[in-house]
Amino acid sequence: MRRRSILATPAILLPAAARAQATERWDLPTGFIDSNFHTVTLRFFAEEVKARSSGRIDIRIYPNNTLVAFASIRRAVQQGQVQIGETLLSLHANEDVIAEADAIPFLAVGYDQAARLYAAQKPHLERRFAQIGLRLLYSVPWPGQGLYTKVAVGAPADLRGMRIRTPTTASSRLAELLGAVPTQIQSGEVAQAFATNVVTGMLTSAPTGVDTRVWDFARYFYTADSWHPKNAVLISERVWRRLDAPLQQALTEAAALAEPRGWQASREADAEAKRRLAAEGMVVEPPPPAVLEAMRVAGRQIAADWATRAGDPGQEIVRAMTS
Predict the structure, then answer these.
(1) Mutual orientation of helices 289-322 and 169-177 as an angle, nearest 10°?
(2) Which of 40, 153, 182, 241 could in theory staple to 158 by disulfide, Cβ–Cβ 3.0 to 4.6 A?
(3) What angle do CA 97, 100, 104 make, to 5 degrees?
């Protein structure tokens, strides 16, 4: 009996050992097309994870809302529908006010300030994500948001009454403070809205302008770099905790490589898009000084209001950006 029990032990242990080495096959949804620099960065991340885990984690990327609608990706990770996913932080501003920090106009202008803001914002994000069963792996910004218009803007008065497409609550407030009329238009309706003067301006990035062929309906792009919203790659904390230490290290190392690569890709996408806009005949230039100053003054008010809503963490972030 004793000899039979000893012989049986390896047979019991082997399946468990085999399971420990089994391949983890994960789905990673995103809202952007294959050629978008965020999706390209995701593919790099997935390749690095597979290599560093010796093939034990195999991540399949689902671009362009093909698996989960972009607005639902964070919830899908929380609820275990997928193991990992990419979302836009400010998309969840109503639930998590700290996630809105990178959508506050003129709190961080340009990539260097965006990096400072990320450093100030990240600890608060990580604490919040831990509370809701998520873990932040890495984050990559979009290019700076500028102003497209049909007509030249030479002074702050030129913005008064202008109907401007605004993508966020904070950008709508920016338009209001400048005397413009914020207008909500779906991305697929932008060209028609400009053609019929439903809007005569919009706040968005240079690459988005290229994607929408903005030169067909607008003439000017004012490169204000007024904010850099960030995408974030999140993993379920439950999934993370069941991984052994080498797999967690593989994910951490891959994320540490993907993040700076994504930031550089964002810079390159911004520069290339601005070249394309100019090549298509658009005027691409910074706002006139008086206009830029009016935008900055409005941004400071929006930041102060946001910090009040965000409490101590918000105050801390704003101090980090203004000190």
Answers:
(1) 130
(2) 153
(3) 125
Q: Supply the pLDDT for residue 187.
A: 74
Beta pairing, strands 201-205 & 145-149: antiparallel
pLDDT value at position 211? 86
Which pair of structure tokens corresponds to residue 115? 């990096």
- For residue 44, give both structure tokens: 């790099």
173 & 64 share domain: no
Q: Which amino acid is at 292?
A: L
Cα 131 to Cα 187: distance, rounded to the nearest angstrom: 33
145, β-bridge pairs:
205
Q: What pLDDT sits at residue 188?
A: 79
Beta carbons of 117 and 317 less than 8 angstroms apart? yes
Whether 256 and 291 map to the same domain: the answer is no
| Segments of the chain scoring below 50 in pLDDT | 1-19
CATH number of domain containing 33: 3.40.190.170
Quick: pLDDT tens for 225-279: 999 999 999 999 999 999 999 999 999 999 999 999 999 999 999 999 999 999 9
State how far the Cα of 109 lies from the Cα of 132, in Å rounded to an integer: 30
- Amino acid code (one letter) for 264: Q
